[in-house]
């Protein structure tokens, strides 16, 4: 064993107790969020990922691959709702960036067309995740908690 290796403390796998600070109700609401996200992405993006033309791959391949991967990863949240919180945070972050950096300037300039309006409508669906996220847990574990060592 490498002498510089730091032992990792593992939780007792025989116990099935939820992490402190996240209630059973909150775990189920998180599972609902992951299900909505995975199912929505799965229904909309995966058919195009599985069967597409070369022209579609050139125009939209990277966008669809990223979102299909996000949906597939969100499905892990059904089993590990707390561990997969970064997936929901990523989903909320990229949508907030889109709304603030792209949609708001277009709206301010009165340049919202029908396709952009549809994009904004689908992105605004992120508001359903806001009350489902255990914000105290997120703050305690991602803001207040000491980070991992650097060396």
Question: Could you walk me through the main structural features you see in this protein, from its secondary elements to its overall organization?
Answer:
The protein has about 150 residues and is mainly alpha-helical. It has one domain. Helices cover about 60% and strands about 0% of the residues. The chain has five helices and no strands. The longest helix is centred in the first third of the chain and has 27 residues. The radius of gyration is 19 Å and the shape is globular.
- Per DSSP, the total helix count is 5
State the separation between the terminal residues, measured CA to CA: 17 Å
- Radius of gyration (CA) equals 19 Å
What is the H/E order? HHHHH
Produce the secondary structure layout.
Blueprint: H1 24-50, H2 54-75, H3 85-108, H4 114-123, H5 135-144
Helix pairs in contact: 1-2
Protein traits:
151 residues, mainly alpha, 0% strand, globular, disordered N terminus
């Amino acid at each position: 064993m490498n002498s510089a290796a730091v032992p990792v403390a593992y939780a007792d796998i025989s116990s099935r107790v939820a992490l402190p600070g996240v209630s059973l109700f909150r775990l189920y609401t998180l599972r609902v969020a992951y299900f909505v996200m995975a199912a929505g992405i799965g229904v909309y993006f995966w058919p195009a990922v599985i069967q597409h033309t070369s022209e579609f791959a050139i125009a939209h391949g990277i966008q669809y691959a990223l979102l299909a991967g996000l949906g597939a990863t969100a499905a892990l949240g059904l089993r590990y709702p707390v561990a997969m919180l970064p997936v929901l945070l990523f989903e909320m972050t990229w949508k907030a960036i889109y709304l603030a950096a792209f949609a708001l300037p277009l709206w301010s300039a009165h340049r919202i067309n029908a396709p952009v309006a549809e994009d904004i409508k689908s992105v605004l669906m992120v508001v359903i995740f806001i009350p489902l996220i255990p914000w105290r847990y997120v703050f305690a574990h991602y803001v207040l908690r000491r980070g991992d060592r650097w060396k």
